[in-house]
Amino acid sequence: MGTGTALKILHTADWQIGRQYGRFSPEDAAVLAEARFSVVECIAALAAQEQVHAVLVAGDVFDAQTVSDRTIRRLFNAMQSYEGPWILIPGNHDAALAESVWTRARRLDAIPGNVHVILEPDAREFPALGFAVLAAPLTQRQTHSDLTDCFDTTETASGLLRIGLAHGSIQGVLAADIDSSNPIAADRAQRARLDYLALGDWHGLKRIDEHTWYSGTPEQERFKDNGAGQVLLVELSGDRSAPIVTPRTVTQYQWMSWNESLSVASDLDALILRLEQLPANTVLDLMLSGQIDLAGEYRLQQALSVVQGRCRSLQCDRGGLRLMPTAEDIAALHADGYVGEVIEELQQRQQGDDAETARDALVILAGLLRDRPLPEAGS
To answer: How confident is the model at residue 333, as a pLDDT?
Structure first.
Protein backbone atom coordinates (compact mmCIF):
# COMPACT_ATOMS: atom_id res chain seq x y z
CA MET A 1 0.00 0.00 0.00
CA GLY A 2 1.49 3.31 -0.98
CA THR A 3 0.64 7.02 -1.03
CA GLY A 4 -2.83 7.67 -2.40
CA THR A 5 -4.13 4.24 -1.43
CA ALA A 6 -6.93 4.15 1.11
CA LEU A 7 -6.30 3.00 4.66
CA LYS A 8 -9.20 1.99 6.86
CA ILE A 9 -8.83 1.69 10.63
CA LEU A 10 -11.04 1.45 13.70
CA HIS A 11 -10.25 3.92 16.47
CA THR A 12 -11.41 3.09 19.99
CA ALA A 13 -10.27 3.79 23.57
CA ASP A 14 -11.18 3.65 27.25
CA TRP A 15 -12.42 0.09 27.39
CA GLN A 16 -11.94 0.15 31.19
CA ILE A 17 -11.96 -3.64 31.42
CA GLY A 18 -12.49 -4.68 35.04
CA ARG A 19 -14.50 -1.58 35.93
CA GLN A 20 -16.64 -1.92 39.05
CA TYR A 21 -20.13 -0.43 39.42
CA GLY A 22 -20.51 0.09 43.15
CA ARG A 23 -23.56 2.34 42.98
CA PHE A 24 -25.65 -0.44 41.44
CA SER A 25 -27.14 -3.60 42.90
CA PRO A 26 -24.79 -6.62 42.71
CA GLU A 27 -26.94 -8.16 39.96
CA ASP A 28 -26.84 -5.06 37.76
CA ALA A 29 -23.18 -4.35 38.54
CA ALA A 30 -22.14 -7.80 37.35
CA VAL A 31 -24.05 -7.44 34.07
CA LEU A 32 -22.65 -3.96 33.36
CA ALA A 33 -19.11 -5.18 34.02
CA GLU A 34 -19.68 -8.14 31.68
CA ALA A 35 -20.84 -5.75 28.95
CA ARG A 36 -17.31 -4.36 28.72
CA PHE A 37 -16.10 -7.73 27.46
CA SER A 38 -19.07 -8.04 25.12
CA VAL A 39 -18.36 -4.69 23.51
CA VAL A 40 -14.79 -5.77 22.70
CA GLU A 41 -16.22 -8.82 20.97
CA CYS A 42 -18.51 -6.46 19.04
CA ILE A 43 -15.54 -4.27 18.04
CA ALA A 44 -13.63 -7.31 16.83
CA ALA A 45 -16.62 -8.48 14.77
CA LEU A 46 -17.05 -5.00 13.29
CA ALA A 47 -13.35 -4.81 12.39
CA ALA A 48 -13.60 -8.15 10.59
CA GLN A 49 -16.80 -7.17 8.84
CA GLU A 50 -15.41 -3.84 7.64
CA GLN A 51 -12.09 -5.47 6.71
CA VAL A 52 -10.13 -2.68 8.37
CA HIS A 53 -6.36 -2.69 8.16
CA ALA A 54 -5.90 -2.22 11.93
CA VAL A 55 -7.65 -1.44 15.20
CA LEU A 56 -6.10 1.32 17.34
CA VAL A 57 -6.87 1.44 21.07
CA ALA A 58 -5.86 4.76 22.62
CA GLY A 59 -5.28 3.80 26.24
CA ASP A 60 -7.14 2.71 29.38
CA VAL A 61 -7.66 -0.77 28.04
CA PHE A 62 -7.90 -1.91 31.68
CA ASP A 63 -9.58 0.01 34.48
CA ALA A 64 -6.88 -0.78 37.03
CA GLN A 65 -3.49 -2.43 37.41
CA THR A 66 -5.00 -4.90 39.88
CA VAL A 67 -7.46 -6.71 37.61
CA SER A 68 -7.30 -10.48 37.92
CA ASP A 69 -5.31 -12.80 35.66
CA ARG A 70 -8.63 -14.22 34.49
CA THR A 71 -9.78 -10.75 33.43
CA ILE A 72 -6.57 -10.28 31.44
CA ARG A 73 -7.05 -13.56 29.61
CA ARG A 74 -10.73 -12.90 28.97
CA LEU A 75 -9.94 -9.53 27.41
CA PHE A 76 -7.53 -10.94 24.84
CA ASN A 77 -9.90 -13.84 24.14
CA ALA A 78 -12.63 -11.30 23.34
CA MET A 79 -10.42 -9.85 20.58
CA GLN A 80 -9.96 -13.12 18.69
CA SER A 81 -12.47 -12.70 15.88
CA TYR A 82 -10.39 -9.95 14.27
CA GLU A 83 -7.10 -11.41 13.09
CA GLY A 84 -5.52 -8.19 11.80
CA PRO A 85 -3.25 -5.97 13.89
CA TRP A 86 -4.48 -4.51 17.15
CA ILE A 87 -2.32 -1.61 18.34
CA LEU A 88 -2.72 -0.74 22.03
CA ILE A 89 -1.16 1.81 24.35
CA PRO A 90 -1.52 2.20 28.14
CA GLY A 91 -3.44 5.15 29.57
CA ASN A 92 -3.59 6.64 33.04
CA HIS A 93 -5.57 3.70 34.50
CA ASP A 94 -3.19 1.05 33.14
CA ALA A 95 0.05 3.02 32.80
CA ALA A 96 3.19 1.15 31.73
CA LEU A 97 4.83 1.08 35.17
CA ALA A 98 7.86 -1.07 35.86
CA GLU A 99 5.41 -3.65 37.18
CA SER A 100 1.96 -3.33 35.63
CA VAL A 101 -1.01 -5.18 34.22
CA TRP A 102 0.96 -5.31 30.96
CA THR A 103 3.99 -7.04 32.47
CA ARG A 104 1.63 -9.57 34.04
CA ALA A 105 -0.09 -10.11 30.69
CA ARG A 106 3.30 -10.87 29.13
CA ARG A 107 4.26 -13.29 31.92
CA LEU A 108 0.94 -15.04 31.39
CA ASP A 109 1.73 -15.27 27.68
CA ALA A 110 -1.80 -13.92 27.18
CA ILE A 111 -1.06 -11.41 24.41
CA PRO A 112 -1.69 -12.86 20.93
CA GLY A 113 0.84 -12.35 18.16
CA ASN A 114 -1.36 -9.91 16.25
CA VAL A 115 -1.71 -7.61 19.28
CA HIS A 116 0.96 -4.90 19.46
CA VAL A 117 1.20 -3.33 22.91
CA ILE A 118 3.44 -0.25 22.78
CA LEU A 119 4.79 0.47 26.26
CA GLU A 120 7.22 3.30 25.51
CA PRO A 121 7.29 6.21 23.05
CA ASP A 122 7.91 4.70 19.65
CA ALA A 123 7.24 4.95 15.93
CA ARG A 124 6.03 1.52 14.91
CA GLU A 125 5.99 1.03 11.14
CA PHE A 126 3.69 -1.33 9.24
CA PRO A 127 5.11 -1.00 5.72
CA ALA A 128 3.00 -3.79 4.24
CA LEU A 129 -0.10 -1.87 5.26
CA GLY A 130 1.27 1.56 4.38
CA PHE A 131 1.24 3.32 7.74
CA ALA A 132 3.28 4.10 10.84
CA VAL A 133 1.98 4.60 14.36
CA LEU A 134 3.58 7.34 16.46
CA ALA A 135 2.68 6.27 20.00
CA ALA A 136 2.83 8.21 23.27
CA PRO A 137 1.88 5.66 25.97
CA LEU A 138 1.66 6.79 29.56
CA THR A 139 4.43 5.36 31.71
CA GLN A 140 2.94 6.88 34.88
CA ARG A 141 -0.59 7.80 35.88
CA GLN A 142 -0.04 11.54 35.56
CA THR A 143 2.48 13.65 33.72
CA HIS A 144 2.58 17.41 33.30
CA SER A 145 4.57 17.38 30.07
CA ASP A 146 3.17 16.74 26.61
CA LEU A 147 4.34 13.27 25.64
CA THR A 148 3.35 13.90 22.03
CA ASP A 149 6.04 16.61 21.59
CA CYS A 150 8.34 14.00 20.11
CA PHE A 151 5.92 13.39 17.24
CA ASP A 152 7.04 16.69 15.65
CA THR A 153 10.60 15.45 15.13
CA THR A 154 9.94 11.74 14.63
CA GLU A 155 10.63 10.66 11.07
CA THR A 156 8.90 7.77 9.37
CA ALA A 157 9.59 6.05 6.07
CA SER A 158 8.57 7.93 2.95
CA GLY A 159 5.10 7.10 1.70
CA LEU A 160 3.75 5.82 5.01
CA LEU A 161 0.68 7.43 6.51
CA ARG A 162 1.45 8.92 9.93
CA ILE A 163 -1.04 7.93 12.63
CA GLY A 164 -0.68 9.36 16.14
CA LEU A 165 -1.89 7.40 19.16
CA ALA A 166 -2.09 9.12 22.55
CA HIS A 167 -4.03 9.34 25.81
CA GLY A 168 -4.58 12.66 27.56
CA SER A 169 -6.28 16.06 27.58
CA ILE A 170 -6.24 18.37 24.60
CA GLN A 171 -5.33 21.75 26.03
CA GLY A 172 -7.69 24.70 25.77
CA VAL A 173 -10.54 22.61 24.36
CA LEU A 174 -11.78 20.30 27.11
CA ALA A 175 -13.09 21.45 30.48
CA ALA A 176 -10.52 23.34 32.53
CA ASP A 177 -10.71 20.90 35.45
CA ILE A 178 -9.31 18.04 33.34
CA ASP A 179 -6.47 20.02 31.73
CA SER A 180 -4.14 19.57 34.70
CA SER A 181 -2.42 16.32 33.71
CA ASN A 182 -1.37 14.41 30.60
CA PRO A 183 -1.62 17.47 28.33
CA ILE A 184 -1.68 17.28 24.52
CA ALA A 185 -1.29 20.31 22.26
CA ALA A 186 -4.44 21.10 20.33
CA ASP A 187 -2.51 21.53 17.06
CA ARG A 188 -0.38 18.40 17.42
CA ALA A 189 -1.69 16.77 14.22
CA GLN A 190 -0.70 19.78 12.14
CA ARG A 191 2.68 20.30 13.81
CA ALA A 192 3.63 16.61 13.55
CA ARG A 193 2.28 16.17 10.01
CA LEU A 194 -0.11 13.48 11.19
CA ASP A 195 -2.73 12.11 8.87
CA TYR A 196 -4.79 11.19 11.91
CA LEU A 197 -4.42 11.52 15.68
CA ALA A 198 -6.37 8.88 17.64
CA LEU A 199 -6.99 9.99 21.22
CA GLY A 200 -8.27 8.44 24.43
CA ASP A 201 -9.11 9.73 27.92
CA TRP A 202 -12.21 11.80 27.14
CA HIS A 203 -15.05 9.28 27.48
CA GLY A 204 -17.31 10.93 24.94
CA LEU A 205 -17.06 11.25 21.18
CA LYS A 206 -15.34 14.52 20.28
CA ARG A 207 -13.85 16.06 17.14
CA ILE A 208 -10.93 18.39 17.88
CA ASP A 209 -10.14 19.13 14.24
CA GLU A 210 -10.53 17.21 11.00
CA HIS A 211 -7.44 15.10 11.76
CA THR A 212 -7.88 14.74 15.55
CA TRP A 213 -10.63 12.82 17.35
CA TYR A 214 -11.58 11.26 20.67
CA SER A 215 -13.53 8.05 20.10
CA GLY A 216 -14.97 7.88 23.62
CA THR A 217 -15.62 4.71 25.58
CA PRO A 218 -17.40 2.06 23.48
CA GLU A 219 -19.73 0.97 26.28
CA GLN A 220 -21.65 3.71 28.07
CA GLU A 221 -20.86 4.06 31.76
CA ARG A 222 -22.13 7.48 32.79
CA PHE A 223 -25.34 9.46 32.63
CA LYS A 224 -24.01 11.96 30.10
CA ASP A 225 -25.20 12.72 26.60
CA ASN A 226 -21.69 12.96 25.12
CA GLY A 227 -21.73 10.44 22.29
CA ALA A 228 -20.25 7.57 24.29
CA GLY A 229 -20.93 4.04 23.13
CA GLN A 230 -19.30 4.32 19.71
CA VAL A 231 -16.11 3.56 17.81
CA LEU A 232 -14.74 5.50 14.85
CA LEU A 233 -14.29 4.03 11.40
CA VAL A 234 -11.54 6.14 9.83
CA GLU A 235 -10.68 6.15 6.12
CA LEU A 236 -7.52 7.94 4.95
CA SER A 237 -6.43 8.69 1.42
CA GLY A 238 -2.73 9.42 1.99
CA ASP A 239 -2.66 12.94 0.52
CA ARG A 240 -3.20 14.85 3.82
CA SER A 241 -6.82 15.47 2.92
CA ALA A 242 -9.31 15.21 5.75
CA PRO A 243 -10.03 11.60 6.72
CA ILE A 244 -13.56 10.30 6.48
CA VAL A 245 -14.61 9.57 10.07
CA THR A 246 -17.80 7.60 10.66
CA PRO A 247 -19.04 6.85 14.19
CA ARG A 248 -20.42 3.34 14.62
CA THR A 249 -22.58 2.45 17.61
CA VAL A 250 -21.45 -0.60 19.58
CA THR A 251 -22.80 -0.02 23.09
CA GLN A 252 -25.08 -2.63 24.60
CA TYR A 253 -26.79 -0.44 27.18
CA GLN A 254 -28.27 3.05 26.88
CA TRP A 255 -27.72 5.23 29.94
CA MET A 256 -30.34 7.92 30.54
CA SER A 257 -30.81 10.56 33.22
CA TRP A 258 -34.23 12.13 33.76
CA ASN A 259 -35.10 14.97 36.11
CA GLU A 260 -38.89 15.11 36.34
CA SER A 261 -41.12 17.49 38.29
CA LEU A 262 -44.70 16.41 39.09
CA SER A 263 -47.45 18.81 40.08
CA VAL A 264 -50.67 17.72 38.35
CA ALA A 265 -52.09 14.36 37.30
CA SER A 266 -51.15 14.89 33.65
CA ASP A 267 -47.47 15.12 34.63
CA LEU A 268 -47.66 11.64 36.11
CA ASP A 269 -49.55 10.34 33.06
CA ALA A 270 -46.79 11.64 30.77
CA LEU A 271 -44.03 10.14 32.96
CA ILE A 272 -45.67 6.71 33.08
CA LEU A 273 -46.08 6.75 29.30
CA ARG A 274 -42.38 7.54 28.84
CA LEU A 275 -41.44 4.76 31.26
CA GLU A 276 -43.60 2.27 29.36
CA GLN A 277 -41.77 3.14 26.13
CA LEU A 278 -38.26 2.54 27.47
CA PRO A 279 -36.28 -0.20 25.69
CA ALA A 280 -35.08 -3.20 27.67
CA ASN A 281 -31.40 -2.16 27.45
CA THR A 282 -31.98 1.03 29.44
CA VAL A 283 -29.98 2.09 32.49
CA LEU A 284 -32.09 4.90 33.94
CA ASP A 285 -31.32 7.39 36.69
CA LEU A 286 -34.62 9.06 37.61
CA MET A 287 -34.87 12.05 39.94
CA LEU A 288 -38.36 13.15 40.93
CA SER A 289 -39.48 16.39 42.55
CA GLY A 290 -42.75 18.26 43.11
CA GLN A 291 -45.78 16.70 44.75
CA ILE A 292 -48.10 13.76 44.30
CA ASP A 293 -51.25 12.47 45.98
CA LEU A 294 -51.70 8.97 47.39
CA ALA A 295 -53.53 7.65 44.35
CA GLY A 296 -50.74 8.95 42.13
CA GLU A 297 -48.09 7.50 44.45
CA TYR A 298 -49.67 4.06 44.11
CA ARG A 299 -49.73 4.37 40.29
CA LEU A 300 -46.12 5.54 40.30
CA GLN A 301 -44.99 2.60 42.45
CA GLN A 302 -46.70 0.16 40.12
CA ALA A 303 -45.14 1.74 37.02
CA LEU A 304 -41.65 1.75 38.54
CA SER A 305 -42.02 -1.88 39.56
CA VAL A 306 -42.90 -2.87 35.99
CA VAL A 307 -39.95 -0.93 34.55
CA GLN A 308 -37.51 -2.40 37.08
CA GLY A 309 -38.50 -5.84 35.88
CA ARG A 310 -38.11 -4.99 32.21
CA CYS A 311 -35.12 -2.62 31.97
CA ARG A 312 -31.51 -3.33 32.84
CA SER A 313 -31.44 -0.90 35.77
CA LEU A 314 -33.65 1.77 37.29
CA GLN A 315 -32.48 3.95 40.15
CA CYS A 316 -35.08 6.42 41.39
CA ASP A 317 -34.48 9.31 43.79
CA ARG A 318 -37.79 10.51 45.21
CA GLY A 319 -36.26 12.69 47.91
CA GLY A 320 -37.64 15.87 46.34
CA LEU A 321 -41.15 14.51 45.78
CA ARG A 322 -43.65 15.44 48.49
CA LEU A 323 -46.60 13.19 49.21
CA MET A 324 -49.70 15.33 49.62
CA PRO A 325 -52.81 13.22 50.28
CA THR A 326 -56.08 14.73 49.12
CA ALA A 327 -59.26 14.74 51.16
CA GLU A 328 -60.42 11.85 48.99
CA ASP A 329 -57.18 9.94 49.77
CA ILE A 330 -57.69 10.37 53.51
CA ALA A 331 -61.33 9.36 53.31
CA ALA A 332 -60.46 6.25 51.32
CA LEU A 333 -57.96 5.23 54.01
CA HIS A 334 -60.60 5.55 56.77
CA ALA A 335 -57.90 7.23 58.85
CA ASP A 336 -59.94 8.72 61.67
CA GLY A 337 -58.86 10.03 65.03
CA TYR A 338 -55.26 9.65 66.06
CA VAL A 339 -54.17 8.07 62.72
CA GLY A 340 -55.60 11.03 60.85
CA GLU A 341 -53.64 13.37 63.10
CA VAL A 342 -50.42 11.42 62.38
CA ILE A 343 -51.03 11.72 58.64
CA GLU A 344 -51.56 15.47 58.99
CA GLU A 345 -48.36 15.84 61.01
CA LEU A 346 -46.34 13.85 58.48
CA GLN A 347 -47.68 16.08 55.70
CA GLN A 348 -46.47 19.14 57.60
CA ARG A 349 -43.07 17.65 58.34
CA GLN A 350 -42.41 17.29 54.61
CA GLN A 351 -41.77 21.04 54.66
CA GLY A 352 -38.85 20.70 57.10
CA ASP A 353 -35.37 19.22 57.35
CA ASP A 354 -36.64 15.64 57.71
CA ALA A 355 -38.86 15.88 54.62
CA GLU A 356 -37.63 12.65 53.04
CA THR A 357 -38.10 10.64 56.26
CA ALA A 358 -41.57 12.08 56.73
CA ARG A 359 -42.50 11.24 53.15
CA ASP A 360 -41.27 7.66 53.48
CA ALA A 361 -43.18 7.24 56.74
CA LEU A 362 -46.32 8.59 55.09
CA VAL A 363 -45.97 6.13 52.20
CA ILE A 364 -45.55 3.20 54.61
CA LEU A 365 -48.49 4.27 56.75
CA ALA A 366 -50.73 4.78 53.73
CA GLY A 367 -49.76 1.36 52.41
CA LEU A 368 -50.60 -0.30 55.71
CA LEU A 369 -53.93 1.45 55.88
CA ARG A 370 -54.78 0.66 52.28
CA ASP A 371 -53.95 -3.04 52.66
CA ARG A 372 -55.64 -3.66 56.02
CA PRO A 373 -58.99 -5.41 56.07
CA LEU A 374 -61.82 -3.01 56.82
CA PRO A 375 -64.37 -3.83 59.52
CA GLU A 376 -67.66 -5.13 58.24
CA ALA A 377 -70.60 -2.77 58.38
CA GLY A 378 -72.32 -2.84 61.72
CA SER A 379 -69.46 -4.58 63.54
So the answer is: 64
